[in-house]
Design goal:
Helix content of chain B: over 70%
Shape of chain B: globular
Distance between the termini of chain B: 24 Å
Largest interface: B-C, 61 and 53 residues
Strand content of chain A: 15-25%
Chains: A alpha/beta (676), B mainly alpha (316), C mainly alpha (297)
Number of strands of chain A: 24
Number of helices of chain B: 13
CATH topology of the largest domain in chain B: MetI-like fold
Structural class of chain A: alpha/beta
Order of helices and strands of chain B: HHHHHHHHHHHHH
Largest sheet of chain B: none
Number of helices of chain A: 24
Number of domains of chain B: 2
Strand content of chain B: under 5%
Largest sheet of chain A: 8 strands, mixed
CATH topology of the largest domain in chain A: Rossmann fold
Distance between the termini of chain A: 46 Å
CATH architecture of the largest domain in chain B: Orthogonal Bundle
Helix content of chain A: 25-40%
Oligomer: heterotrimer
Radius of gyration of chain B: 24 Å
Structural class of chain B: mainly alpha
CATH superfamily of the largest domain in chain A: P-loop containing nucleotide triphosphate hydrolases
CATH class of the largest domain in chain A: Alpha Beta
Strand order of the largest sheet of chain A: 6-7-8-3-9-10-12-11
Number of strands of chain B: 0
Chain lengths: 676, 316, 297
């Protein structure tokens, strides 16, 4: 196969306010015509920088290719004058981005932006022809009413729709190479599945190559022919997708594969986690850049950087690859996958427990009214949570999943009475929270705590760690200064932070460490209940596993009851005893975790599970893609709210909202015609 | 769109009513005896002072004073001069052309110079030209206009003799005042445009535009500038206010017969009703300009326009 | 995006020895400018506090034999029509000018910030009412409002301070309100509430401290604006006629001699400009230093 893109020993530097910073070192790889190559790595690995360098977009961010060459069809992009570079951008190689919402110019219509691209590269095309081509492209990427959409502004379309439009724009000049930088990271899983499938189809149809940048090895497994793994600005391994997953040749890849929570992760075992975190570009370790986190580390690793070495058609940069291969270690994901089909369904332990309820929601509804002002024409309410009843038992972990807009976070906030429900009630140990006086409610908060998604925003940047963790103790008037300090130090060690953290400020800590700080604060008062609202979603894979492990340890040690809200289904499955699925403000299914995944009854749950990309290449079946997007909670469909996207919808679904009913031990579903 | 305008006009009326209350309060409610401030107590007999109080109506209860004042304003009577009993509103209209001339030409100077330099500065960020522009802009906003006006007179009238130092007839009397006021406005606009240009240039969609292969010119002027100017439109309202207020000082410095001059003279003569009338008039003009700006803003920015349209697709 | 952020943050931990040349002038110029600005402000504050140590002559000392002397070695900035030394007049005039600047920022800033904080934190009808009042005050351009207030209050140093303070109040209120609203919606506020902290303590310990930095920048630049407004009022004759005129009055008095003695007008104006310019430079620097985007995590 001829090589379309050849990246040869490329290093990239950025000029910053305080000097020059090398962000990418000596990266080489190539992409053949018609091939999909995935550049995988965690944040800080330099993968996005490489992808931007292919079209020299880093030039405008004070970056430059300091050495090496990037050849597209034999033309060295690194040495091209800007004028010629521009005729390649968008024409020979096109790019789509992570956040479709911000990747379009907000003040021009979609149509104007697409035709602008078309006419930029072929001036003979009349505006009318360009418009026609834009319509065709939109239709091809699956946007209905393309004429109408072209007249709209980016702010008027949803994220999934915008990403489709972005793909249409990128492909409008029939590029040979499509660079996709985390194209589905900002989207919900069902939309992600749709977009990935679209990319697959278009690749064949347009006969192009794809360079896909992702941190999600599941996504990589789904569509890549070959995977290039980056760590701290270097390529550390590359191999065909099947080979990489079967037999990683680098300890980092191995660790990464092991730390992914899959559908098959054994709940009785701790998740594998790579210790530590990725170094910053300015303080890279000597020798092998991975050595401080590596289990195979030796003296040589500390002093000498390993070169990228050939291993029979694939490459790895490690002094100990032979040891890795000799041991024949396979990532557990694989073993589990092999075993999964044969294991009998385990008896659901939780289903038989006596109902010792800690928290109960009774017909809770939360509406956010809008358009209340005198002059607005439309009045209404965003129906964030609609008539949800739910009981969480003492000592269990209850998982809540759903896409964005499903109302799961609102439900969490209402449950803690951080927001009052519009109707319905919340009972904590039998006491109704809504009936308590503000002072009593504050007192009650001792027993229920919360961890937030954003580890950067949930701690006050002006407070020292010691004060942050100690705040609950001060608020609830516990003990003197010395006892408090002792308690805080104990909490810090409980969550795995050093006592030195006490006098430091949040900005000195990484995302994972901050999440530990937040957890330490949440458990400071030994609460009975902990709400973890997307607590690991913002973290890198290797760090996610650390935090999940910490949470399960704490649950055992402190006998916590946890409500774990997440959109990462695999993680939710791993931590939860029971799982509830939300769709558009409604709880549509509740079941013991294992059972929900093995015998999902609601069509939405089925679609959700089918949409998860599995990091196991052989198991890629056709995705159970459901069509369309989640409707606006301000105008939910009548009857069953899922019917507009449901493959099994009947006339009855539009008329009659289904009630939750029990279809198995502890398994409830709200569907007129549940599957299997 | 019609609804947007209607709503805006209604709130406009409410605000104007508010400002008339405010103007009334400033002069009659704040501590300090208005009458005593107006006159030299030693030169008038107590009876004359009492007469004056009666004439001004300040001897009546507060609410009555206010109702009276408000009624008069609604009728279009902005009060009479204490000095020569001349009604204020006709006087304002007589002096309005000179002020408008100045405010408009100064705005023109501010906009052209400010926009050009602001874009130049943002595009050449941290290069010598940017640093030079930023220093010039800093001077623009830091120089008191009464001083920069005097400096211009000194240079262009006294030393060079190119333009007259005073007067309000003919274009050549307009050059120096318009420049003086324009420099101030230009300083503000340069800083605003530079900031918002830099902000826009940091947005992700700029990368998309470059990735599409657009020429840098198109990226900067077709896309970035347009995005940057949208928040700038609201600045136009503020600029209009600055320009109107600026005329008071400028017209004094250059001895122009505008409404700024009326107020400056009224202050010297302690002619409070005139001060009050002019301030209220300016407030009304300012409110109207801002309403126009808001309406055009809604028209220019699709994001705002959308809010007034159907909300159906607004969520998701 | 994530990576771009980490690129930006990485250089904070360790400085690489090589510096790219084009970034050098920016740093040097910025440093040079703010240092000079700081020096100017300190010098003028010293003038206001201890003029007798700095001024070579007494500002009230009139001598017929040195009327309208141009700048020279004996009288650096020349003399005025009463034979007073212009430099000494400026040094002594600093006190009143700076007092107006600082005091009105203090009065206007504190009360504006309080109003804004109240409005933003309480929300609801309190917010609506306060903000409508602010809207109304803002319909009258600052200078004009100050003018009207000063005219209503009559002459007097404190009256000028009050006039300038009232004119600047709405800006502080708006900024503070906006800040409070944005801080209020940040997760750490919910976090603090969720551990059972009372509303008051959340407000005092978390909301307020995190809302103050833009106000600081505004106050800094506001000192400049207030001096401009204050001296403008003096220039228009709303100030107090005193033995030692402030800069605005000095300038106004010198206007009549423009054609024969340019220096009387020029130098007080230069003093105002220099001071305002300097606080603006410091304000800009402060803004950059406090900008969360520029010193992220």
């Amino acid at each position: 196969m001829s090589q379309l893109l050849e990246i040869d020993r490329v290093s990239i530097r950025f000029a910053t306010g305080r000097g020059d910073l090398q962000v990418v070192s000596d990266v080489s790889f190539s992409i053949a015509a018609g091939e999909t190559v995935c550049l995988a790595g965690e944040s800080g690995s330099g993968k996005t920088v490489v992808s931007k360098a292919v079209m020299r977009l880093i030039d405008d961010e004070n970056g430059k290719i300091s050495s090496g060459s990037i050849k597209l069809n034999g033309t060295d992009i690194a040495a091209l004058p800007r004028q010629e570079l521009r005729s390649i951008r968008g024409k020979k190689a096109a790019m789509i981005f992570q956040e479709p919402m911000t990747a379009f110019d907000p003040v021009f219509t979609i149509g104007r932006q697409i035709t602008e691209t078309i006419r930029r590269h072929d001036r003979r095309i009349t505006p009318n022809e360009a418009h026609q081509r834009a319509v065709e492209m939109l239709r091809r990427v699956g946007i209905s009413e393309p004429e109408q959409r072209l007249k709209q502004y980016p702010g008027e379309l949803s994220g999934g729709m915008l990403q489709r439009a972005m793909i249409a724009m990128a492909l409008s000049c029939r590029p040979e190479l499509l660079i996709a930088d985390e194209p589905t990271t900002a989207l919900d899983v069902t939309i992600q599945a749709q977009i990935l499938q679209l990319l697959q189809e278009l690749k064949n149809e347009f006969n192009m190559s794809i360079l896909l940048i992702t941190h999600d090895l599941g996504v990589a497994a789904k569509i890549a022919d070959r995977i290039v793994v980056m760590y701290a600005g270097q390529v550390i391994e590359q191999a065909s997708t099947a080979e990489l997953f079967a037999r990683p040749h680098h300890p980092y890849t191995q660790g990464l594969l092991q730390s992914i929570t899959t559908m098959d992760s054994d709940r009785s075992q701790r998740l594998f986690a790579i210790p530590g975190s990725i170094p910053g570009h300015a303080d890279l370790p000597d020798g092998c850049r991975f050595h401080p986190r590596c289990p195979y580390v030796s003296e040589k690793c500390r002093s000498e950087a390993p070169p990228l070495k050939d291993w029979g058609g694939r490459q790895a940069a490690c002094w100990h690859t032979d040891r890795l291969i000799a041991r024949g270690e396979r990532p557990p994901a694989f073993e589990a996958a092999a075993a999964a089909s044969s294991t009998p369904e385990p008896a659901d332990a939780s289903a038989g427990l006596p109902d010792d309820v800690l928290i109960e929601l009774r017909r809770v509804t939360k509406h956010y009214p809008f358009g209340r002002s005198v002059f607005s024409r439309k009045k209404g309410a965003v129906q964030a949570v609609e008539d949800v009843s739910l009981a969480i038992r003492r000592g269990e972990t209850f998982g809540l999943v759903g896409e964005s807009g499903s109302g799961k976070s609102t439900l969490g906030r209402v449950l803690l009475h951080l927001e009052r429900p519009t109707s319905g009630s919340v009972l904590f140990e039998g006491r109704e929270l809504g009936a308590l006086s503000p002072a009593k409610l504050r007192e009650e908060r001792k027993h229920m705590q919360m961890i937030f998604q954003d580890p950067y925003g949930s701690v006050d940047p002006r407070w020292k760690i010691g004060d942050i963790v100690g705040e609950p103790l001060s608020v609830h008037g516990r003990a003197g200064a010395r006892e408090k300090k002792e308690a805080v130090l104990e909490l810090l060690s409980l969550v795995g932070l050093s006592p030195a953290a006490y006098d430091r400020y949040p900005h000195e800590f990484s995302g994972g460490q901050r999440q530990r700080i937040a957890i330490a604060r949440a458990v400071a008062l030994r609460p009975k209940f902990l709400l973890a609202d997307e607590a690991v979603s913002a973290l890198d894979v290797s760090v996610q596993a650390q935090i999940v492990n910490l949470l399960s340890d704490l649950q055992r040690r402190l006998n916590l009851t946890i409500l774990f809200i997440g959109h990462g289904l695999n993680v939710v499955r791993y931590v939860s005893d029971r799982i509830g699925v939300m769709y558009l403000g409604k709880l549509v299914e509740i079941a013991p975790g294992e059972r929900l995944f093995r015998r999902p009854a609601h069509h939405y749950t089925r679609a959700l599970i089918a949409s998860i990309p599995t990091p196991v290449p052989e198991r890629q079946q056709d995705l159970g893609v459901i069509h369309g997007e989640i409707p606006s909670p301000a105008h939910p469909p009548s009857g069953c709210r899922f019917r507009t996207r449901c493959p099994a919808a009947t006339a009855r679904c539009a008329l009659e909202p289904p009630e939750l009913r029990e279809i198995g031990p502890g398994h409830f579903v709200a569907c007129h015609d549940p599957a299997g | 769109m019609a609804k947007v305008i209607a709503v805006r006009l209604l709130s406009c009326l409410a605000v104007v009513a508010g400002s008339s209350v405010l103007v009334f309060c400033i002069l009659y409610v704040l501590p300090g005896d208005v009458v005593m401030n107006m006159i030299d107590p030693s030169s008038m007999s107590p009876e004359a002072i009492a007469n004056l109080r009666h004439e001004l109506g300040v001897d009546r209860p507060f609410y009555e004073q206010f109702l009276h004042y408000f009624r008069e304003v609604l009728r279009g009577d902005f009060g009479k001069s204490l000095v020569n009993s001349e009604p204020v509103l006709p006087k304002i209209f007589a002096h309005l052309p000179a002020t408008l001339e100045l405010a408009i030409s100064a705005s023109f100077v501010s906009l052209t110079v400010g926009l050009a330099l602001g874009v130049l500065s943002a595009v050449h960020r941290n290069k010598p030209i940017d640093i030079a522009v930023r220093i010039v802009a800093l001077f623009g906003i830091s120089m008191p206009t009464f001083w920069s006006g005097i400096l211009l007179i000194l240079i262009f009238s006294v030393f060079l003799g190119w333009f007259p130092a005073m007067g309000s007839n003919g274009w050549n009397t307009l050059v120096l005042p318009a420049l003086t006021l324009g420099m101030l406005g230009a300083g503000f606009i340069v800083r605003m445009v530079r900031n918002s240009m830099l902000e826009v240039l940091g947005e992700p969609f700029i990368t998309t535009l470059r990735a599409k292969g657009l020429a840098e010119r198109a990226v900067l002027y077709r896309h970035a500038l347009r995005n940057a100017l949208i928040p700038g439109v609201t600045m136009m309202g503020i600029l209009a206010g600055e320009m109107l207020a600026g005329t008071v000082v400028i017209e004094t410095v250059f001895s122009r017969q505008g409404i700024g001059r009326i107020i400056a003279d009224a202050i010297m003569a302690k002619d409070l009703p005139v001060v009050q009338g002019v301030v209220l008039f300016t407030a009304i003009v300012y409110v109207i300009v801002n309403a126009l700006v808001d309406i055009s803003y809604a028209y220019i920015d699709p994001r705002i326009r959308r809010l007034h349209n159907d909300r159906r697709s607004g969520w998701a | 995006m994530r990576e771009a952020a980490s690129v930006k943050t990485a250089w904070r931990t360790k400085r690489t020895p090589t510096t790219l040349q084009r970034t050098v002038p920016k740093i040097v110029v910025a440093r040079w400018m703010s240092l000079t600005a700081g020096a100017v402000v300190l010098f003028l504050i010293a003038c206001a506090l201890v003029p007798q140590w700095i001024a070579p002559y007494s500002p009230t000392d009139m001598q017929a034999d040195r009327i309208l002397l141009p700048p020279g070695s004996a009288y650096w900035l020349g003399t005025d029509y009463f034979g007073r030394d212009v430099f000494s007049l400026i040094v002594y005039g600093a006190r009143e000018s700076l007092f107006i600047g600082f005091a009105s920022v203090l009065v206007g800033g504190v009360s504006g910030a309080l109003l804004g904080a109240l409005s933003g934190y309480l929300g609801g009808w309190v917010d609506s009412v306060l903000m409508r009042i602010v809207d109304v005050i803002m319909t009258i351009p600052g200078v004009l409002l100050a003018l009207a207030v000063a005219a209503g209050l009559g002459p007097g140093l404190w009256n000028i301070v009050l006039a300038v303070a009232i004119a600047s109040l709405p800006n502080y209120a708006r900024i503070m309100r906006g800040q409070i609203l944005s801080v209020k919606s940040r997760p750490f506020i919910t976090a603090s509430r969720s551990i059972g902290a009372s509303e008051l303590s959340v407000f005092v310990k978390h909301v307020l401290p995190n809302s103050l930095s833009p106000l600081l920048v505004m106050a800094c630049i506001g000192v400049g604006t207030s001096i401009l407004t204050g001296s403008g009022l003096s220039f228009l004759g709303l100030g107090v006629l005193k033995e030692i005129p402030d800069w605005g009055a000095l300038l106004s008095q010198g206007r009549g001699y423009l054609t024969v003695a340019w220096w009387i007008c020029t130098f007080p104006g230069m003093a105002i400009t220099l001071f305002v310019l300097s606080v603006n430079v410091i304000g800009d620097e402060l803004r950059d230093a406090l900008d969360p985007r520029k010193r992220r995590e």
